[in-house]
Amino acid sequence: MKCIGQKPSRFTRYKLMPKRIFLFTLQTFSATGGIQKMTRTLAHALQQVALRNQWDFKLWSAYDAFNDLMPEYLPAENFRGFGTKSWLIILNSIKIASRANVIIISHVNMASIGLIIKAINPKCSVWLIAHGIEVWRPLSFIKKLFLKRCDKIICVSTFTKQEMIGWHNVDTNKCEVLNNALDPFMKLPVSFKKNEHLLQRYKLSADSLILFTLTRLDSAEQYKGYEQVIKVINELKVRFPSIKYILSGKYDAVEEARIKYLINEYNVDDQVILTGFIYESELPDHFLLADLFVLPSKKEGFGIVFIEALACGLPVVCGNVDGSMDAIRNGELGTAVNPDDLNELKNTLSEYLQTPLTTVMRKKLQQQCLHYFNEEDYINKLQQLLQDEPIS
User: Fold this and answer.
1) How far apart are CA 245 and CA 243, in angstroms?
2) For residue 6, is pLDDT > 50?
3) What is the rounded CA–CA span in Å between residue 145 and residue 40?
4) I want to staple 309 with a disulfide (CB 3.0 to 4.6 A). Which of 108, 132, 293, 295 is the partner?
């Protein structure tokens, strides 16, 4: 029985005084990149935390239009997209600054909004989400000032945290590592059968040994490592005559020409299949089609595509010099190689290809991935981080 005059417990205080949480994003629903995927999952998780605690949560997007909203992630009344009038997000942030308790800035390019809100309401807790290459570099005066003024930096991987500290000398105590989680609406396979329609589309036989890469193919971002895979395919095809390499992702004209040149130079025209953009709805079937996912990148902040592959029971080979290590749990869920060592890459791919991938192996990988990167754990971690913030 509660005594008269007794102070309410910390838990009771949170219940009695609802928090007002705002998530500011550049884009969430109108694009399909890794940051957008992460932000959709973050928005859904924050919505669940708000419902559990009777808090108020809103997502404001600078470049999404209202019609871009995917209503499964959050209700329409909790979303505002500024679309063609993206500059209005700054003016409106001024209006809500005094009544916000927690502001989450999803990209450092929105640093000015965080600074404005902090100046108006110093008691408001302002967070930054740090993904990868956008913060692994010298930053402008405004962005560096924001790093000093913000209260928390949520880093998607241990590597990103280390880079934040190394590049910008931020307070270690500000940085929290919160690995990305799987999209709660991703359709996960149950039977692990190869899709017949895709086999026919790409003119593959059921016994083809298939390597798969899915990434953005951008001439300005030549660090993903798929050219390294193209280089070793020429040697691998001698030992594995049925090998095929499906290279997927949206590409620009310059990168398309470079990739086709490499394919011709290394004489792997019959092995490499360049698909272009793949719709989200077809991703699980592409993961099921393959025997191994390979992306020996040098600059992944985390690599959501790795956990998507693992969630479909597909083994993963990644680079060992970036945030990919968190996605494979430092080797527990996959294999990391030196992206610049072609022999190491070739030998690692050979080891996987010589061991047939069974349904049992796929199921085990899927279960391990879901154990570490499920949304429920992600929600609980967010809940704890938010509960640690006092109500202003």
Assistant:
1) 7
2) no
3) 27
4) 293
